[in-house]
């Protein structure tokens, strides 16, 4: 079940939507704790119910042969007890639900302190953190107090219910004993049979607390399950709604000129954006009616005021946001197998649409295999060795290792990677150790090997490397993956100008076309076109962007 849920959580970018739109709380706790409770309790309930059925069959006969009216008393008693315990415990389900949430919130608060230890220490924010954590803890504590009061009431009743049962059967059969119809031993016999059967009928009374906790777990898992299903069905929804991403496996060939030749520049179209309007998930327009073609090596710089929607444009290009309209066509795949067929001078394009590629995972399972790479401003450092950092995210097989760095032993079927979807393109071949060392040199991080002794040293890389070093490491990943197109979101913001220039030269040398977002003047030196996005004016329907060529020499002189 854990693997099943993780598969769906990591498909269709469900984890991203859940986090960015705050759809449900603590999905991690649902996967770890709720699944654990669900499977454990489901198993123990099954065994308990099975036990109860066997017990009921064995003792009903005895009780019925002693005195049939005892059965009627038993029914009335157990039904009455069940109704009262359900009434007393009616708040237990919601209180258990909230307890799980509040404890998970508290734990998450502590995890955030650990993850942001340095920033908090720089801010000297200990007192504030303590306050925030105490608020979360107090909230969990208050809910626990309500839960305890409710459980206490249920417990009082359950105890009373259990004690009364000791005298009830004896009281019912006592008149028969005194009238001499039954012997003294039969009283004991009837008490024992009565207790057994009552235990079976009173499952709800005895287990009301466990049942309410189980119901809360089912609610939380059900909510999560629905969300994951919805995320999958959204991927298969009408592709005409929202922004369409199209991955073409042929290069777009324009109409040949009168002499039959096709201009070289036009053959190298990489991205074609048609009438694109990008909106936030809440529906605010950020970029209006953008039409743009990016050819190979025609590096584009996206600039504009803070909050104008530069990163959001990249989000739309990566398929993270589909709110808005228009088309983004990528011509980044090699077209050897699918040469366009030309008939009567017309060019027929063969394209794979995003929806065709949906398969199990909706959007392409790994955009990197499609020849597109993304570098964020704050690089993500995986938990693991330096080698795993470099191989991430294109080659992830080696990531299966335990916290102490050892490989898990034994055959665990769920550790096997999922079979590759037939639509998924081939990965580039895996780099050798020499390639990894070379790429570290290329991004001027060769000193890491002497600092950390080898490529297989594990560390908390986001703490031990400076932000600039992390950004260079991210460029090393890019150079290893050799995509056709890379989207750089202020990914050199922490670097000095010399390192920034060096990295851009390396990327250009590798033949990778880049689209950068940034504010720094130095960036103009490495780009050929500038897309300027201005803040949308809600009162006007005009588009809010302009494109101009960058005169490299002029920008160098600036
Ligand atoms: N998940 C979201 N839901 C709603 N609005 C969002 C969301 N994420 C970002 N926004 C809003 O969208 C707008 C554009 O954000 P974006 O990150 O694209 O700006 P930007 O131009 O890259 O800014 P900066 O230069 O400061 O990085 C901002 O006003 C931001 O508050």
UniProtKB/TrEMBL annotation:
- Which protein family is named in the record? Belongs to the ABC transporter superfamily. ABCD family. Peroxisomal fatty acyl CoA transporter (TC 3.A.1.203) subfamily.
The record's GO molecular-function terms, alphabetically, read: ABC-type transporter activity; ATP binding; ATP hydrolysis activity
Could you identify this protein by its name? ABC transporter D family member 2
An annotated GO cellular component: membrane
Keyword tags = ATP-binding, Membrane, Nucleotide-binding, Transmembrane, Transmembrane helix, Transport
Q: Which residues form the ABC transporter domain?
A: 271-558
Bias regions of kind Basic and acidic residues — which residues? 419-433
PROSITE patterns in alphabetical order: ABC_TM1F, ABC_TRANSPORTER_1, ABC_TRANSPORTER_2
Which residue windows are transmembrane per the record?
A: 42-64, 70-89, 160-178
User: What top-level branch of life does the organism fall under?
Assistant: Eukaryota
One Pfam family of this chain: ABC_tran
Please give the organism: Pyrus ussuriensis x Pyrus communis
PANTHER family in UniProt: ATP-BINDING CASSETTE, SUB-FAMILY D MEMBER, LYSOSOMAL COBALAMIN TRANSPORTER ABCD4
Q: Which InterPro entries match?
A: AAA+_ATPase (IPR003593), ABC1_TM_dom (IPR011527), ABC1_TM_sf (IPR036640), ABC_transporter-like_ATP-bd (IPR003439), ABC_transporter-like_CS (IPR017871), ABC_transporter_sub-D (IPR050835), P-loop_NTPase (IPR027417)
**Where is the ABC transmembrane type-1 domain positioned along the sequence?**
1-213
Q: Where is this region: Disordered?
A: 403-433
């Amino acid at each position: 079940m854990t693997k099943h849920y993780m598969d769906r959580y990591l498909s269709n970018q469900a984890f991203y939507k859940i986090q960015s739109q705050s759809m449900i709380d603590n999905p991690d706790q649902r996967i770890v704790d709720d699944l654990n409770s669900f499977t454990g309790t489901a198993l123990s309930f099954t065994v308990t119910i099975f036990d109860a059925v066997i017990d009921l069959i064995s003792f009903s006969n005895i009780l019925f042969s002693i005195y049939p009216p005892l059965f009627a008393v038993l029914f009335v008693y157990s039904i009455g007890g069940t109704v009262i315990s359900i009434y007393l415990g009616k708040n237990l389900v919601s209180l258990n639900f909230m307890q799980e949430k509040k404890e998970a919130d508290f734990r998450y608060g502590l995890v955030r302190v650990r993850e942001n230890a340095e920033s908090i220490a720089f801010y000297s924010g200990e007192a504030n953190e303590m306050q925030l954590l105490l608020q979360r803890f107090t909230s969990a504590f208050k809910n626990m107090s309500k839960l305890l009061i409710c459980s206490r009431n249920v417990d009082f009743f359950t105890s009373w219910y259990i004690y009364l049962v000791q005298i009830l059967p004896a009281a019912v059969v006592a008149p028969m004993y005194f009238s001499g119809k039954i012997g003294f031993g039969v009283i004991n016999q009837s008490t024992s049979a009565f207790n057994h059967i009552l235990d079976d009928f009173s499952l709800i009374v005895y287990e009301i607390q466990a049942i309410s906790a189980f119901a809360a777990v089912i609610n939380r898992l059900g909510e999560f399950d629905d969300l994951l299903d919805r995320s999958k069905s959204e991927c298969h929804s009408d592709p005409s709604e929202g922004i369409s991403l199209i991955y073409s496996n042929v290069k777009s060939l324009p109409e040949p000129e009168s002499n039959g030749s096709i201009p070289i520049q036009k053959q190298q179209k990489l991205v074609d954006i048609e009438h694109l309007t990008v909106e936030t998930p809440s529906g605010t327009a950020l970029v209006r009616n953008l039409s743009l073609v990016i050819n190979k090596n025609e590096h584009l710089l996206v600039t504009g005021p803070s909050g104008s929607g530069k990163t959001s444009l990249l989000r739309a290009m990566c398929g993270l946001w589909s709110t808005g309209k228009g088309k983004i066509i990528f011509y980044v795949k090699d077209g050897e197998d699918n040469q366009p067929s030309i008939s009567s001078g017309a060019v027929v394009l063969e394209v794979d649409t995003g929806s065709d590629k949906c398969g199990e995972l909706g959007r392409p399972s790994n955009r990197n295999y499609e020849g597109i790479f993304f570098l964020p401003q704050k690089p993500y450092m995986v938990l693991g060795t330096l080698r795993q950092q470099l191989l991430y995210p294109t080659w992830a097989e080696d990531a299966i290792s335990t916290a102490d760095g050892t490989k898990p032993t034994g055959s665990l079927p769920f550790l096997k990677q999922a079979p590759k979807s037939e639509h998924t393109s081939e990965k580039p071949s895996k780099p050798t150790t020499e390639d990894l060392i070379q790429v570290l040199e290329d991004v001027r991080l060769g000193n890491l090997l002497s600092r950390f002794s080898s490529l297989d040293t594990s560390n908390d890389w986001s703490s031990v490397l400076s932000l600039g070093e992390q950004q260079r490491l991210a460029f090393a990943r890019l150079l290893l993956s050799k995509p056709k197109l890379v989207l750089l979101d202020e990914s050199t913001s922490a670097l000095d100008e010399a390192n920034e220039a060096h990295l851009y030269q390396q990327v250009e040398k590798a033949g990778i076309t880049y689209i950068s977002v940034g504010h720094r003047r130095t960036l103009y030196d490495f780009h050929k076109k500038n897309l300027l996005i201005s803040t949308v004016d809600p009162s006007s329907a005009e588009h809010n962007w302009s494109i101009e060529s960058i005169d490299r020499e002029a920008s160098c002189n600036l």
